[in-house]
Each structure stands twice: as structure tokens, then as C-alpha cells.
Amino acid sequence: MKLFNILYFIIILFSFSEARAQNEVPTLTGKVNISIKEGTFTCDMTLSNIPPLKDYFIRLNSGMNILHFRSLKPNDFLIGYDKSLKDTISTGESNAYYFPGKDNKGKFLPNTLRVKYTGKFPVATDTLENYSRDDWKGNIAFNGYSVRTDGDQTAWYPMLYDIEKDKLYNEVKYDIELQCSDCSTLYVNGNLPVKATQANFKSDTPKELSLYCGNFDFKKSGGTYILNPDLTDEQFTQFCGITNSYQKYYEDKLGIPFGGAVTFISTTPTSIRNSWLFVTYPSIFSIGRGENGLKSLFNPKIQNWYRPFIAHELGHYYFGTYKVFNSALGDMMSEGFTEYLSLQVTRDILGIETYQKKIDDKLKDLKDFNPTAFSKVNAKADYKDRELYVYYYAPLMFTAIEKEIGKEKMWKWMRELLKTKTDFTNYKFLTESLEKAVQDKVKYNNIISKYFESDTSLKNIEEALKKD
Known about the structure:
The protein is of the alpha+beta class.
């Protein structure tokens, strides 16, 4: 009887440990001091509630100079650390750190980790001689009047990555004190903007910590904010009406409520010509100059390009936030289905002519592309050209499949993808969710053969899109 009790206790303890590893969300606390004039970050950050991972990396921006890592729990001591080149995502913007185990066997990971570091970055002061050649999402961008960072790509704060499950803990609970003495406005993703040089920002809901701080104003309509707005009051009202209509469309079609109000950030790049948008929900960043910014929404010459772009970024609430995708095909699913959502908004709200032009333009750009079939993708390198694969080839494939199974089953497929729980969003997950949605073995096998396995899938897509 005693042996049974011991075994029962061990089983319960093991189950509890497994549940703890799966359900824990790290918490980030500490102080951040920024200067937009000097281009500096000085940080004293503590990451707690760390799940007990055996194989991991701690990502941190490669421009950050580390004073030390310190274990606070289970014991308090300075930790020796090493860097790895095996984390391919971290070879650019961030470094991948780990703590060697005893006698260099395995890896040690404390439950609570403190790290002090300082980084200094170039400041593009918007003069003819002081631009960078390029700007991009993973840039910690100082443009003279503000600083912009996303969370996961810049890795400006310590970020845990589970190698075994291909899971990045970029969304954390947080309680940080932010100071910027040469700023007038501070914003941290998941909080409201504040007019201050110092403020405490806190969220009990996990968020990716994008930042936008500097000297700018903001506008509010309902729960929607625009930071650094370059819009008239009338344009601002129209802008909110447009974005709200897109959100309602997604809610109605997917049967999943949109996750609340969005904050739009309008800012200029550190370069002359770069312009793009990216999302770290609930923030959407618009980077561009003049008519390449949010004003594009009202420019008749380019609004038919820009409005679907906004629809794409809003769609990332579902494919990228509500559901995070990993594995070799995860990037394709996240971007491909989001672009497919944008195409639906384009057809049903913006009009069939705008929709058809986008389809035709994508087909034209794929003219010389030879894509790898989904079933043969074992790594992101198999995409060959990521932009063509995830933004052009994948959404056109989903449009072709729509021709085969109908719109309603396409929405059902996307609901399956979003609601099905899985550790890996891999090829098996993709095909099984499709089979559940189609519920027709003949049609399912035909789709797999023509689109997922065929080396002539692009030709098959073109033929399907010619059908009425």
C-alpha cells in the first residue's frame, strides 16, 4: 500500500511538472532608461516564472552589451554564459545565449534570471547626410524624434526560446518602469500611451513588448488610438470606420471575436525610401514618409494597394496572435492565410475589380517562380524566395482551393486551423485540418495531389483561377 502511495505521488508530481512547463508564462520586471538623442538603452531586467526547459536559448539584441546574467532562483549567483550560432534566427538582430550545466554537461536554466545590459544605436536625425541605407522590422530605430522597436525580432528584452518545441516566449506578462528624459510621450504595447518622461507599464495579459517613445502627440476615437497622427480629424474618423469594418468582417466570418481595440503607430523610417507595416498586437506600426504613411489610405492613386495592406495586418490578430504558428510551414501558414484573409476583404468590401487586379499581379510576379510543394518543405530555406512563397504562392493556392471546395468550407478550414490545439503547426496539422473541413475524401485527395504534393502546383493554381 505504501509503495502504491509513493508511485501515485510521483505520477501526480510528474503530471503537475508537465502542466507547469506547458502553462507557465514568463514575467518581465525591471527598469528601462532610454535616450532618443543618444540612441541608448540601459536596462536592468528580471525574467521570472521561467518554465523548466532542458534545451533553450535566451535571445537578446546583438547591440546590447551585457554586464552580467544573475540567477536569483533557486540560488543567487552570477552565471557564466556562452553564445551559440545554431539559432539561425539570432545570427542577425540577436545573439543566442545559454548557461552551461555542471562540468559543461547539458544546460542550466534558473527559475528567475536577472540581466543588466546597455546598448547604443545610430540615430538618423532626418538630414540629407544622416540616413541609414535600409530600415527593417528588426531594427531598433532611432529617427531623431522617437525610438521604435518590435518585440521578437529586435529582442530588446531577454527572450526565452524552447528549442524542442520551436516555441518563442516573446509574449510575457510585464511590470516595467520606463524612463526617457528627452521624450514627451511613452508607449508600451498592451498599455495606453502617456504624456510623461517616466511611467510604470504593467500587463497581466501576455504581450510582445514593442515600444514607441519620443516627441509626438496622439489621437483617440472610441478605444482606437493613433500615435503621431498625420491625419485630419475627418480622415481620422474615416480611418477608424474602415478598420472597424475589417475587424467586424473577420469576426463574422471566423466566428472568433477580434481581440479589442488596436493602436496604430505612424512613424518615419531611418532610411529615405523604406515603407511598410507590421503588427505586434494590439499595435500596428506604419513606417513611411508623407504619402507612404497612413495618408495612403486616402490617396486615390495608391489606396487600392494600401487598404488591403491594412486588412492584412489586422488579419494577423488571428494568424499570428490568436494562434501562433511554428515548424517549417508555420511562416507560410501565418502569412499565407493572413494574405488570403486580406484578399477576402478586398473582394467583398473593396470590390471585385481591385480583387482581380491583386490576383493578376500576384500571378504575374510568380511567372518565373518554381515553388517547392508543401509536402516537400522541411525547412524555411525550401521556400527559395520567402516573399514569393508566403505572400504570393500560398494565398493563390488557398484561392484555388476555394474554387474546389467553396467559400464556406474555406472559412471552416481556417476555423479548424485557429481552434485546433497542437504543439507543432506542421504539414500533418495542415492536412488533417483540411480533411476535417472538407469532409469529402475524393475532394480532399484531389487537393492534396494537385496542390500539396505536385511539382506543377503553380500551373494547377493558374488553371483553377481561370474558372468562374
